[in-house]
Design a protein that fits this description.
The complex is a heterodimer of chains A (139) and B (238).
Chain A (H helix, E strand, L loop, with lengths): L1 H27 L5 E2 L4 H5 L5 E2 L2 E2 H20 L3 H29 L4 H27 L1
Antiparallel strand pairs in A: 2-3
Helix pairs in contact in A: 1-3, 1-5, 3-4, 4-5
Chain B lengths: L4 H23 L22 H4 L13 E3 L6 E7 L4 H17 L3 E7 L9 H12 L4 H10 L1 H4 L6 H10 L4 H7 L3 H16 L4 E2 L1 E4 L2 E3 L6 H14 L3
Classes of the chains: A mainly alpha (139), B alpha+beta (238).
Chain lengths: 139, 238
Amino acid sequence: MRKIYILASVLSLLGLADALYLTIEHLTGQTVRCTILSGCSEVLSSQYALVAGIPLAAVGAAAYFTVFSLAVLALFGYRIAGKILTPLVIAMFFVSVWLFYLQAFVIRQFCQYCLISAAITTCLLVLVLSLRWFKPAAQ
Amino acid sequence: MKRILPFIIILVVLAVALTSAWYLTRSIPAAQNPPGNQTSSSPGSPASPAQSQQPVVTGVPGAEPAHTHGPANAPLKLEEFGDFECPPCGLFHPILKQMEEEFGDKLQVTFREFPLVPTHQHALAAASAAEAAGLQGKFWEMHHMIYDHQNDWKKEFDVRPIFEGYAKQIGLDVDRFKHDIDGEAVANRIMQDGKRGHSMGVKGTPTVFLNGREVNFENLPADKLRVVIQNELRSAGK
C-alpha cells in the first residue's frame, strides 16, 4: 500500500510538471507557433483548450496537485484521503479519454504533452484500482 | 510531528510549483498577441527591444530562384518560412499582404517552404502544389489561393483534387501541374528551402527574418510588425 501511494505521489508530481508547462506555454502564447515536433499549437489554440475562460491545462495542474496531496496524506495514514483519491483519479481518466478523442477525431492533431498527461492518468488509474486488490490482503 | 509532515510536504510542493510557474512566465517573452490578434497600441509604439538585438543570420542558400515579391533593390528584405497548413501562418498571410501594400517598393518579400512533416498531414502536398504552380510562373497565385482557403482543405482526407481545382482556377496547365507536383524539381526546391531554414535555426512557423534578423514571434501582429519594419527602414536610412 505504502509503495502504491509513493508511486502515485511521484506520478502526480510528473503530471503536475507536465500540466504546469502546458499552462505556461498557453499563457505566454509560445505554442501558438507551429513547430516541427508538436501539434500543440492546434490543440492549445482550439476551443476545447479553455473551460470557462480558464486554460484546461491549469485545471489539469490543479487536479494533479490534488492527487499528490491526497496520496501524501494517505501515505501518512489519513484514510479519508485514500477514499477521495480513487473517484478523483477515475474522473481524471474519463476526462483524459474525452481529450484523447478530441485530439484524434475532432482537432486531428496530437499534442505530445497532452498524451504524456493521458499516460500518467492511466498509470494513476491502474495504481488506485490496484489498491482495491491490496486492501483485503493487508487486512 | 508525523501528523504535520504531510502538510509541510504539500505546502513545499505548492510553493515550488507556484514559484517555478511565476519564474517561467516571466522569463519567456509573452506572445500575448499572436498573428491575427490586433492590439490596441498605436503605430509607432515600440516593438520588443529584443528585435534590434537579433543577430543577422545568413544560412545556406535556399531554392533558386527564390519566390520573391517586390523590387530586388528594396531596402527591406523580408523572408518568411511558412507552412501552408499551419494556422498562425494562415493568420499571418493577410498581415504580410497588408505590409506589402503599406510599404510598397520599399519591401521585398520572399517565401520559403517549411512544411512541418509529420505534424501537418497535408503541408507537404500544399508546398508541392505551390511549387508546381511556380514552375508555370504562378507561385504567388497558388500561394494566395492555398492560404485564403486553408480552412476549406486542411480537414479533407484527399487534398490533391482541391489543389488541382485551384490550379484550374488560376489558369495553369492542369495536366502539367499534376505531373510536376510529384516531380524531382518540386521536391528539390522544398528540400533546399528546408535546408536553408534549418541552417538559420528555424524551428517553427511562421518564422520571419527582416534583413537577415529574426523578427520575434510576438512582433508578428500587424501593428507590431509595422513598427519593426519602420525601425528597420529608419536604421537603413531610407
